[in-house]
Amino acid sequence: MSDFPTLETPRLQLREIVTADAPALLAIHSNKQAMQWFGMDPITEIAQAQALVDTFAESRTQPNSGIRWGIQDKAHDELLGNCGLFKWNRQWKSCSLGFALGQPAWGKGIMSEALQAMLVWSFEQMQLHRIEATVHPQNQACLKLLERLGFVQEGRLRQAGFWLGEHQDLLQLSLLRAEFEPSPISAF
Asked: N-acetyltransferase domain: from which residue to which, for each copy (predicted)?
């Protein structure tokens, strides 16, 4: 992954996250309601948002690299959220999935559209066989989204996460390449 892959959908552009996105990342990742499920404490300062930009950029150069896209509304040029893959095990052809969406974009099908594009790209370009996701059991919106995309629940990881001062159970889900059926929206 030398050049950053930009992906397009009818409404969205998935693009590299840059320094100018730090204020939008702060707005998304400082929201306590959204971050209760994300796996990290909410951030509170612009320097923490800049550190996220740096972390996302550096993840592409790590041995078990990853990639994180900014989700931008093409009509308004605003960053709505982010999504990506991490813990890429090339030998096993597997990755983990992560995403966050700003509260103003909730309930509009934005993340479904973005993830469809990302999944098509990852199965084709990264030649993945399996994509994993871990989700807090009470995050019903996320669970429903992943199940609509074809992810299957595999089990509960007891107290596998720690954020907001508590150990958190997580549900393990996965999607296999043979199970993935892109919806018409991903045929762009």
From this structure: 12-176
How many Cβ atoms from other residues are within 10 Å of residue 33's Cβ?
9
Backbone angles phi, psi at 183, to 5 degrees: -80, 165
Residue 44 has pLDDT above 70, yes or no: yes
Where in the sequence is the domain holding 102, given as residue range(s)?
A: 7-186
Contact (CB, 8 A) for 3 and 57: no
Q: Is residue 18 part of a domain?
A: yes
Distance between CA atoms of 129 and 133, rounded to whole angstroms? 14
124's CB contacts (< 8 A; 6+ apart) are none
* Within a domain: 46: yes
Domains contained in the chain, number:
1
Q: What is the pLDDT of residue 92?
A: 96
pLDDT per residue as tens digits for the range 153-174: 999 999 988 887 889 899 999 9
Residue 163 near residue 184 (C-beta atoms within 8 A): no
Average pLDDT over residues 55-70: 85
